Structure prediction request, 234 residues.
Amino acid sequence: MTPAFRSSRLVSTAAATAIAAAAMLAAGSASANEFYVTGSIGQTSLEHEIQRDLGPNPPALPVADTSGTSLTSDDGTSLQIAAGYEFDLAALPASIGIEGFYSYETAETRNVNSVLVTDVELDSRYGARLLFNYDVNDKFGIYTHGGVTVIDYDVTNSYTFAPPVTERSDSETAFAYGVGARYNLTDNVSLVLDYTRLSETQFDGIPEVAGNTGRVNPNRLGLDRLSTGLRFSF
Prediction:
């Protein structure tokens, strides 16, 4: 089991435990409950970093190759559907929500690090989160949230001078957190503004084939999402 995989398992376990504990707390102090569904559209910003160290004796290639760190980012459209259950807290103008979500993603990046060209295409995000909502007044509320997010993505390696091309599909698990606001249009329909950030996710790149090195470079992904949508309560 790799350190990155062990870290992902620990994050997932800790977040799931926190969500379960909060759910039991909310259930014990709730005065009213409601089920809700939210649909949103937003912009996802994807950041990708590669670190390459060729070592003291790099192989001879048709063009010069160098060590270094490269960083790139790009934005894409995000479509998300979420469903959750909210527990109103009797003693406060507040509530706790437990939510599951799925998001279709289109963000993709191209990172050129000397002769290595790496494309990352984000396919989807899904997971669960815990929300703490505070009602400022009858119409307007704010909230914070945290939970576990899985990202599915595709990675492609190629080279500036010639093929070959190597590809891989993968998933990573990360802690996600953020803030939001909600404005009640009616008793059952609300306008929602949401910001989410994923903790930095590290993964091992596809082994390099140029020069038959099999070198595996450290990679890092960063992700932010800003969205707006409608929430329907039942």
